[in-house]
Structure formats: structure tokens, C-alpha cells
Amino acid sequence: MIEGEVAPAKINLAQDILFRRDDQYHEVAMVMASIDLSDYLTFELIPENKIIVETSRAFLPEDNRNHAFQAAQLMKKVGNIQSGVHISIEKRIPVAAGLGGGSTDAAAVFRKLNTMWDMNLPLSELQALASRVGSDVAYSIAGGTALVEGRGEKISLIQPAPKCWIILAKPAISVSTRKIFQQLDIDRLKYEPNTPKVLAALENGSYDDLMAAIGNSLEGVTFSQHPQLARLKQQMLHFGADGVTMSGSGPTIIGFTQVYSRGHRIYNALRGFCQEVYMVRVMPEPFEQFKS
């Protein structure tokens, strides 16, 4: 029997890098939200004691360099599973875009194998396992809108954003999160954290306050390496977005509007600058099995 699982992308409404920890990871405070742009995974249990991962993008690894493969490997070990699984990933989320594509695929594997292999681990255990695969994977297990702290393992579901349209523009460049963090100089980050202001705006349900609060402390580093992203941000504002920021470590730039017709105009205007442009909405709810 073949079963499917949706793996939604995420955006950052806020991303603050606070300090470098003693373990050399960075302490973060972020507000993440799932959006209705998703990869789609299919699963088939097989009698052979092995993991097979296939993707629709020829350049992506299909061995233990793939986060989905790592997630299956970890679940297999924890559950002492002696059979195997064949996983096919239909990629719709842009790769290396700051939208959590690899992380959400791994999260989908944790969710689906938890039921298909009758492991029935609670959310907290799944998230603990997910943190061993990647820093964004734990958040992606339940999805929704959440405050994410620590190195990504402290997750609190919060009030979702007011209804709006989000335009994503991903230029034809790839950004390495690892390299961005390697070049990040915490002592030179002179800015007021965005996360507290975003949390207050969400709690009050104020779209205008949210637009004034969104931000990403990695923009300076990523923009210095890719100046076209700073220009893209200004273009999006010029075309009428109410607020614009970068998602993750980039290069995707995201703009917001509550008016569909304006969003469509921004979408059409940006397609002249970027091959990958999307108009999406926030998915306010976590996955059904993790609703409180």
C-alpha cells in the first residue's frame, strides 16, 4: 500500500541571531509560519531491510546526505524496524531557498513512518529525534505558526498572522546556510530584535504592526554577498508590498499584502526579475494530529 504526506514550506516572520553558544551553535529567536507551497512525499513499505529515497530533482542526493533519508534511518533504528521503506519526493518547494524544503521533507518522514510503522511516538519525542537531523526539522513536525528558540528545539505554537497574501521571489542563486553563519559576526550585528515586536503584533492581531515588525538579522550578511537581493527587496516594496523581508538565510524575498489584486500585480511584476515567483497564504493550523 502506498500512502502520501504533504510537506509544507515555511517562512520567517522574524529571525534573530542572539549569540554564539558554547557548543558553537547559534542561539536563535524566530517566528516561523507554514505556507501552502508544499512538496509531496509517497511512502511504500517494502520487505527488504533498506531505505530507498527518490526525488524529482536529479541534482539532489538520495543517500544519507538527504535529510529525508536520515529521518527514515533514525526512525528505523529507534523502532528496531527490520523491514524497509521506499520514499518518493515530488519537489515543489525551491531548493536552497530559505524555505525549509529539506527540513519539511524530513519532518514528513518522521510523521508518516511514526504511523506506518506503528511507533506512535508523541510529538515531544518526534521533535527530539528531528533536532538530530536538522535545526528546522523539529518545528516542521507540527508546522503552523510558532516561536522557535534555542538552536531550534524550543517550539511554542502561537497566534497565526492575520489573513494576507504572501509573494515569494526566489532568484536563480543558491545560498548556503552554513556559509552564511560562518561569515556572521555576532558582535557587529547592531539591530533591535524583531521577534518580540512580531509576537506582540500577532497577539494583538494587528496586520499593520506585523508589517512594521517583520525582519531578519541575516539580511546584512546575505545581501553583502548577493546585492541583487537588496534590489529585489526594494522592487517588491516599490510594486506595492506592505512589508518585505528575507526568509531564512535567503535568497527568497517575501512580501505581504491583504489585497488579492495588488498581490497579483506584484507577482506579475516580479516574474520579469525572477523565474521562481509564488503567491501563497499562511497555513494557520498545525497538522491535525498535533492540535491541542
Automatic annotation (TrEMBL):
GHMP kinase C-terminal domain sequence ranges? 199-273
| Pathway assignment | Isoprenoid biosynthesis; isopentenyl diphosphate biosynthesis via DXP pathway; isopentenyl diphosphate from 1-deoxy-D-xylulose 5-phosphate: step 3/6
Q: Name one GO molecular function term.
A: ATP binding
What NCBIfam families does this protein's entry cite? Answer: ispE (TIGR00154)
Q: Which family does it belong to?
A: Belongs to the GHMP kinase family. IspE subfamily.
Biological role: Catalyzes the phosphorylation of the position 2 hydroxy group of 4-diphosphocytidyl-2C-methyl-D-erythritol.
Name of this chain's protein: 4-diphosphocytidyl-2-C-methyl-D-erythritol kinase
Q: Which organism is it from?
A: Aerococcus agrisoli
